[in-house]
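Long-time lurker, finally posting.

We've been working with NADP-dependent oxidoreductase domain-containing protein (Lotus japonicus) and I want a structural starting point before designing mutants. I don't trust myself to interpret raw outputs, so I'm hoping someone here can both generate the structure tokens and explain anything notable. Sequence follows.
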Amino acid sequence: MRSVEQVEENVAAARELAAFGIDEETLSEVENILKPVKNQSWPSGIQQS
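Top reply, 14 upvotes:
Generated this for you. Predicted structure of NADP-dependent oxidoreductase domain-containing protein:
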């Protein structure tokens, strides 16, 4: 997080999740969308030889 605003947004999201629980249907949809890239990574930063 790079700003106070981002921290506040994330805290608000965490509070909402704690109050209402996980929407399993939405979570399943998101997981299906991300399935092709799940557990993959890519190099970043300075490449060393």
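Before you design anything, note these points.
The chain has two helices and no strands.
Residues 12 and 18 are 10 Å apart (CA to CA).
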